[in-house]
Amino acid sequence: MKTEKVTIHTLRQKKKASDRITMLTCYDASFARLLDDAGVDILLVGDSLGMVIQGHQTTLPVTLDEMIYHARAVARGTTRAQVVGDMPFMTYQASLDDAMRAAGRLVKEGGAEAVKLEGGAQHAELVYRLVSAGIPVMGHIGLTPQSFHQLGGFKIQGRDATAAQRLVDDARSLEQAGAYSLVLEGIPREVAADVTHVLSIPTIGIGAGSECDGQVLVIYDLLGMNDEFKPRFVRRYENLAMRIRTAVDEYIADVRSGQFPSEDESFSLQPQAKAPSRKAATVSAIALAGGCSPFSEGEMGSGKESASEETPFYGSPTQAARGGTGQGA
Ligand code: KIV
């Protein structure tokens, strides 16, 4: 099946056709392959990685180099979805030139196909300049996590009439400046609906009700990786925290009881070869210390003893066959 790459034009078409857009955060190539194969439209390399991957309390410590590293991995694992890279805190607030260079690095080194930045009208000029330089921009208004301290925490925004109007105005400014889409985070659904109806670019909601043109969730929240975190706007489609614990408990029990690895999960000498004596084993250990590969033919046989041994030691056959996307470094 031919996979059409999702572009800013695909997304605009989707809004016109009232075809809802799906976006998920993604931080590595393995997840990228899975989410891309599932048909998600946009993979956001979100700075939420500071919290779910790095274990910080906020997104503020994330650096541009870290974003580039993760974006590159996601780009490698993606064929169809649009890959969007978050501009981390203080890479675009201090000066337009810094911001241009930071966005350029996300695209050039990270393989991102668009960048996302938080904030409204105050970034209109930057959005205009980025778009003029050929870098598509996704806006992000409402609960903007990089303003955690200014907002006094992760709090719903736009609840009174003035604040709601400001969100509509911000959304309009970003659209006029050239943004191709807009994340609406943590705002009343009525405000999100208004913004969605006044804009011709798609809105993508998180904690913003069902009338947005699309939805986004942090993939770790959707999969239930953290059982202490269950805010109202998250729907858990899995309980991976529990499943991972169960799987690892079983692994520990199997190793401790000697049930892992089994005969089938082990390699054997060639039929005519004799088992090494203790003395020979010592010699072979010395050879290993001298740099011989434990998996070389001489040590472990031809590697063609059974069909299953043709499976690569690491990495899936699909991964090998695909050979990556050619994006990123
Ligand atoms: O960083 C992130 O993951 C985000 C989404 C929650 C929209 O900005």
List the total number of helices: 14
CATH homology-level superfamily of the largest domain = Phosphoenolpyruvate-binding domains
* CATH C-level label of the largest domain: Alpha Beta
SSE run: HEHEHHEHEHEHHEHEEHHHHH
Helix content: 40-55%
Distance between the termini: 27 Å
Name the shape in a single word.
elongated
Structurally, how many domains make up the residues? 2
Query: How confident overall, as mean pLDDT?
Result: 89
Structural class: alpha/beta
Bound molecules: 3-methyl-2-oxobutanoic acid
Assign the CATH topology of the largest domain. Answer: TIM Barrel
Q: Tally the beta strands.
A: 8
The main β sheet shows up as: 8 strands, parallel, barrel
Q: How big is the Rg?
A: 25 Å
Model regions low in confidence, pLDDT < 50 over at least 5 residues = 285-307, 315-329
Strand content: 5-15%
Order of neighbouring strands in the sheet with most strands: 1-2-3-4-5-6-7-8
CATH architecture of the largest domain: Alpha-Beta Barrel
In summary, what is this structure?
This protein is of the alpha/beta class.
Task: Summarize the structure in words.
With 329 residues, the protein is of the alpha/beta class. The protein has 2 domains: 8-222, Phosphoenolpyruvate-binding domains (TIM Barrel), CATH 3.20.20; 243-322, no CATH class. The protein contains 14 helices and 8 strands. The chain has an 8-stranded parallel beta barrel with strand order 1-2-3-4-5-6-7-8, surrounded by 7 helices. The protein starts with 7 loop residues before the first helix and ends in a 7-residue tail after the last helix. The model is unreliable at 285-307 and 315-329 (pLDDT under 50). 3-methyl-2-oxobutanoic acid (KIV) binds next to β6.
